[in-house]
Write a structure and sequence with these properties.
alpha+beta; Archaeosine Trna-guanine Transglycosylase, Chain: A, domain 4; 5-stranded mixed beta sheet; 3 helices; 8 strands; globular
Length: 149
């Protein structure tokens, strides 16, 4: 079994090391038609069907049980290996507040703190250059993981 590599920000890598982050999201490379029925399998395969049309995509981050090596380019923070526990897909706007906090690796929101606005700004900063803005509501891979000792 090969270990795949994923470049992440320094902040994300520190949050994984500290145990504050246990999932990540990545937009699908190929769009799924609106109204399609979508299922995911443990091996990281997404299948969709809409009427007579069908499609299949493989999660680029790996499959359940595989390891993923998270690293940053030019960083002094050590890379970290994680084991993939679960893979699923969702629309980015379907995330709950808890999921947004987990993705941002922030604690409980302070009074008056708008975690959704903070998440939207963070998401768009990273993904808008590829056309996957929060407002476009892309399908995303959701990869849940644990640190490997």
């Amino acid at each position: 079994m090969s270990t795949r590599q994923k470049a992440v920000s320094e902040e994300v890598l520190r949050a994984v090391h500290a145990g504050r982050k246990s999932q990540l999201r990545q937009p699908l490379d190929v769009p799924v038609p609106d109204g399609a029925r979508v299922t995911t399998q443990a091996n990281g395969t997404l299948r969709w069907q809409k009427d007579a049309q069908r499609g299949e995509l493989l999660c680029p981050l790996g499959a359940v049980g595989e390891w993923l090596n998270l690293h940053t380019r030019g960083s002094t923070t050590a890379p970290v290996a994680v084991e993939i526990l679960r893979i699923r897909v969702q629309r980015v706007q379907d995330m709950t507040g808890d999921e947004m906090r987990a993705e941002l690796a922030i604690g409980e929101p302070a009074d008056g703190h708008d975690e959704r606005a903070e998440f939207v700004a963070w998401w768009n900063q990273i993904h808008s250059p590829r056309g996957a803005t929060f407002e476009s509501n892309p399908w995303v891979w959701v990869v849940e993981f644990k640190l490997v000792d």
